[in-house]
Amino acid sequence: MTSPPxxxxxxxxxxxxxxxxRHETALTAAVQSHADGIATIxxxxxxxxxxxxxxxxxMAHAQRLVAQTDLAAGALxxxxxxxxxxxxxxxxxxxxxxxxxxxxATTDPIALxxxxxxxxxxxxxxxxxxxxxILPLLFALGAACSAVVTLLAAFLQAQGPVGLLAxxxxxxxxxxSGLLPAGELADRxxxxxxxxxxxxxxILAGMLATTALTLA
Length: 216
Prior knowledge:
Elements: H1 5-84, H2 109-124, H3 134-157, H4 161-173, H5 179-190, H6 196-215
Helix pairs in contact: 1-2, 3-4, 3-5, 3-6
C-alpha cells in the first residue's frame, strides 16, 4: 500500500532539512579548517621573518667583530714589529687567520688579542720585576739542566774519539743550558725577564753542578 503524498512530502522535507544541516556543518568545519590553516601559515611566516631578522642581526654583529678583530690584530702586529726592532722586518704582513682550535677555552678572539697585547706591553716595559721566590727555582733549574747535559757529555765521551770531542763540546755548554728554560719559566709564570743577577745565579748553579759531576 503506497503512502499518501503528504507523508512522502514530509519525509522529503525532513531529508532536505537533514541534508541542509549536514551541509552547513561540513561548510562550517571546512571554513574553520581553512581559517586554522591560514593562521598556522601566518604564524610560520612571522616566525620565519623573526628568524631572518635575528640571523641578519647576528651576521652584522659578526661582521663588525671580524672587522674590529682585524684592525686590532693589525695594530698589535705593528707594535710587535716595533718591539722586535730590526728583526721585526722579517715578520712581514699580518698572517691570515688560522682555523679555530678544538679547545673552546681558546676560541675567544678578544681574549687572545688581550693576551697578546699584554705580552707586547710587557715586552715594551722590559717585563715585570722578578719576585724573590723565583731565585731558588732558577738555581735549582740551572743545576738540574746542567747536570743532565753533563751526564749526556759523559755518555758521549765514552763512545770513542768522535764522541770524546762531542762530549767536551757539550760539556762546555752545560753551565749555560739552564738559561733557556729559566727565561721561559720567568716569562710564563711571572711575566718577567731574567735580569743580570738572575742570569748569573742560573749560570753559577750550572757551573757548580757541572763541576761536582765532573769531579765525582
